[in-house]
Amino acid sequence: MAAIKNVAIVGASGSLGEPVLKALIESGKFNVTVVKRESSSASFGDSVAVRPVDLSSVDSVTAAFEGQDAVVSTVGTPGLQAQEILVKAAVAAGVKRFLPSDFGCDLANPKAAALPVFKYKLNIHKVLREAAAAKPDFTYTLVCNNAFLDWGLEKNFLLNWKDSKPKLFDGGNKLFSATSLDSVGQAVVGILSHPEETKNRFVYVKDIDISQNQLLAIAKKVEPGKTWEDPIHIDTAELEKSSYESLAKGEVTPQVMVAFLFRIIFGPPDYGGRFATDDNELLGLKGKTEADVEAILKSMVQG
């Protein structure tokens, strides 16, 4: 497969988009174009081209994608449903590689994929496979990084360390894979630098396998003067059951959907929350140690 040189990114101003854009630029390997909503006031500096578009129009997005070898989508949850327009535009523009905003759990795992939180992502997988089958020059990569490490700590998602009474899921001993936002950015660079080896498949990246109890021990080390109370223990099976009951009553809320993510990340191993293998070596990722995690958490404590 020919080398990828021109790369467009959609969603570049978001929590994930910013570090991915930074990695693409700093690699020096690509001519980077930011495709943004016409109404967006986000600015991106002089090192990238910026193309405002109507993201609801295939024709508008196709024009922006002309001449691009690859498109990276880092849109947030509200934009997942609209990614089909991006795929159609990429195919029409002759784009060689598309990375959807998948970035998360292993959806090759049937138990994880069966959970209702991934409806829009699975639909895009289907659209991508059909597009690649119809036009072999069009390819895709699905990035699995499981939990976001630094974002998950900042937002109290992996451990509510900002409270004195943390919540532990299923005892807090299960190891799960986690990846920092910067490492996801480096993974995208690695994928685009190895187009043949990464085409039309899931690619797995992770910085570390760690447990909630390990994170709690690190948090206690970082804040030695803090008084910690006994943790609140939560059963992920009960969370999953409760979420299905809520959905049956038409209650589709972020809290209901996030419970399914907790089931994958902190629940039984057969949900795929800990990656058995990864593509780190191929993509040039070195991973992180518990000391690195401590440094991340310490920087957050110090503000």
Cα-atom radius of gyration: 20 Å
Give the amount of beta strand, in percent.
15-25%
Q: How many β-strand stretches?
A: 12
* Helix-strand makeup class: alpha/beta
Number of helices: 12
Structural overview:
- The protein is α/β, with parallel strands linked by helices and 303 residues long.
- Helix content is 41%, strand content 16%.
- The chain has helices at residues 17-27, 58-65, 83-93, 110-113, 119-134, 149-154, 181-193, 212-222, 236-248, 254-266, 280-283, 290-302; strands spanning 6-10, 31-37, 49-53, 70-73, 97-99, 139-144, 147-148, 167-169, 176-179, 201-204, 208-210, 232-234.
- The strands form three sheets. A seven-stranded parallel β-sheet has the order 3-2-1-4-5-6-10, with helices on both faces. Strands 7-9-11 form a three-stranded mixed β-sheet. Strands 8-12 form a two-stranded parallel sheet.
- Strand 1 (6-10), helix 1 and strand 2 form a beta-alpha-beta unit.
- Helix 1 (17-27) crosses helix 7.
- The relative contact order is 0.13.
- The mean pLDDT is 96.
Q: What are the SSEs and their pairings?
A:
Elements: E1 6-10, H1 17-27, E2 31-37, E3 49-53, H2 58-65, E4 70-73, H3 83-93, E5 97-99, H4 110-113, H5 119-134, E6 139-144, E7 147-148, H6 149-154, E8 167-169, E9 176-179, H7 181-193, E10 201-204, E11 208-210, H8 212-222, E12 232-234, H9 236-248, H10 254-266, H11 280-283, H12 290-302
Parallel strand pairs: 1-2, 1-4, 2-3, 4-5, 5-6, 6-10, 7-9, 8-12
Antiparallel strand pairs: 9-11
Helix pairs in contact: 1-7, 2-3, 3-5, 8-12, 9-10
